[in-house]
TrEMBL record:
It comes from the Bacteria. Keywords: Branched-chain amino acid catabolism, NAD, Oxidoreductase. This is 3-hydroxyisobutyrate dehydrogenase. Pathway: Amino-acid degradation; L-valine degradation. The lineage of its organism: Bacteria, Pseudomonadati, Pseudomonadota, Alphaproteobacteria, Sphingomonadales.
C-alpha cells in the first residue's frame, strides 16, 4: 500500500521502518529534519509539506505528541487532502474527547478513521511488537488491522471511536497505582528486616503478585531484567507516565468516575517528574527510601 506517515520521532521512526519492511511504500512527514533524515535511511520517501505526503495515498498513519497537534494536523493537512476513501489511523496517545472529535470530522468528510494508541515503548516500536488498542467502526477496524499488524504483535478492537484511548489511559492509570504499591511494599518489607529477594519469592507466588513486581521489578537485582537494573534508564519515562495520568484524570472528570487512587498517583508522579522526568517510572521508589 501507499501509506503516509506523520510524526517520525522515537516511536514513529521505528513504526514507519516496519511498514517499509512489510513492503509498503511509505511517504514520511515530520517537522524535524533529523527525523526525516532517519526515515530516508529506513527506506521512506520524505516530504516537507504534509499535504504532498498524503496526496495519492491509501492510508495515513500518525504518531504525534498530543491532541492539539493531532487535531491541527488532521483538520489542516489530512482531511480533504488525502484521497477520498483513504483509511486514517492515529496511533498517538491523546485525550478521548479530541480523538472522538477528529474521527467525527474525518467521518463527516467520508473517511474511515480509528484511534489506535499503543502499549510498548521505543524498543517495541522498533521491533514491531507493539500492542494496538483500536477504537472505531467495525469497517474502519477491518481496514486498519492489516496495517497495524505490520507494526505490532497484537491488534485489539476496543469498540467505538475513542475507546482505544480509553483503554490505554485506564490501563496506564492501573499500572501507575500498581507500581507505587509495589514500591511501597518492597520498601516497607526491607525496613521491617526482610531481604528484597525473599519478599519477591513469597509475594510473587502470593496474592500481592502483579506485573510491576514480576515483570518490571523496581528493586535492582530482583526479578527479570528491568530498568531498575540499569540505573532506571530507558524503559517508560516518568514524564510519559505523568502525561497519561493527566489524560486519565481529565477523562475521569468528564465521565464522572471517581479515581481517588489515580488522582493520588498523578500527584506523586507530578512531584517526582519535576526533577526526574527522564527516569523510568519505576524510579519513583526513590521517593520512599
Ligand atoms: P517524540 O517527541 O519522539 O516524537 C514526536 C514527533 O512528532 C517528533 O519527531 C516531532 O518532530 C513530530 N511532530 C510534532 N509536531 C508535528 C507536526 N505538527 N507535524 C509533523 N510532525 C510533528 O515522541 P514519541 O516518544 O515518539 O511519542 C509519540 C506518541 O506516542 C505520543 O503520543 C506518546 O504519548 C506515545 N507513546 C510513546 C511511548 C514511548 O515510550 N515513547 C510509548 C507509548 C506511547
Amino acid at each position: 500500500m501507499k501509506i503516509a506517515f506523520i510524526g517520525l520521532g522515537n516511536m514513529g521512526g521505528g513504526m514507519a521502518a516496519n511498514l517499509v519492511k512489510a513492503g509498503h511504500e511509505v511517504r514520511a512527514f515530520d517537522l524535524a529534519e533529523p527525523a526525516l533524515a532517519a526515515a530516508r535511511e529506513n527506506g521512506c520517501e520524505t516530504f516537507t509539506d504534509p499535504k504532498e505526503a498524503v496526496a495519492g495515498v491509501e492510508a495515513v498513519v500518525s504518531m504525534l505528541p498530543n491532541g492539539a497537534i493531532v487535531k491541527a494536523v488532521f483538520e489542516n493537512d489530512v482531511i480533504g487532502h488525502a484521497p477520498e476513501g483513504a483509511i486514517l489511523l492515529d496511533c498517538s496517545t491523546i485525550d478521548v474527547a479530541t480523538a472522538r472529535e477528529v474521527i467525527a470530522a474525518a467521518e463527516a468528510a467520508g473517511y474511515d478513521m480509528v484511534d489506535a494508541p499503543v502499549s510498548g515503548g521505543i524498543a517495541a516500536a522498533a521491533g514491531g511488537t507493539l500492542t494496538f488498542m483500536v477504537g472505531g467502526s467495525e469497517q474502519a477496524f477491518q481496514r486498519a488491522e492489516p496495517i497495524l499488524q505490520a507494526m505490532g504483535k497484537a491488534v485489539i478492537h476496543a469498540g467505538d471511536a475513542g475507546n482505544g484511548q480509553a483503554a490505554k489511559i485506564c490501563n496506564n492509570m492501573l499500572l501507575a497505582i500498581q507500581m507505587i504499591g509495589t514500591c511501597e511494599a518492597f520498601t516497607m518489607a526491607q525496613k521491617l528486616g526482610l531481604d528484597p529477594q525473599t519478599f519477591y519469592d513469597i509475594s510473587s507466588v502470593s496474592s500481592g503478585q502483579c506485573w510491576s513486581m514480576t515483570s518490571y521489578c523496581p528493586v535492582p537485582g530482583v526479578g527479570p531484567q528491568s530498568p531498575s537494573d540499569n540505573g532506571y534508564q530507558g524503559g517508560f519515562a516518568t514524564a510519559l507516565m505523568l502525561k497519561d495520568l493527566r489524560l486519565a484524570m481529565e477523562a475521569a472528570e468528564t465521565a464522572g468516575s471517581p479515581t481517588p487512587l489515580g488522582g493520588h498517583a498523578k500527584e506523586l508522579y507530578e512531584a517526582f517528574a519535576a526533577e526526574n522526568g527522564g527516569l523510568d517510572f519505576s524510579a519513583i521508589i526513590k521517593t520512599l527510601r
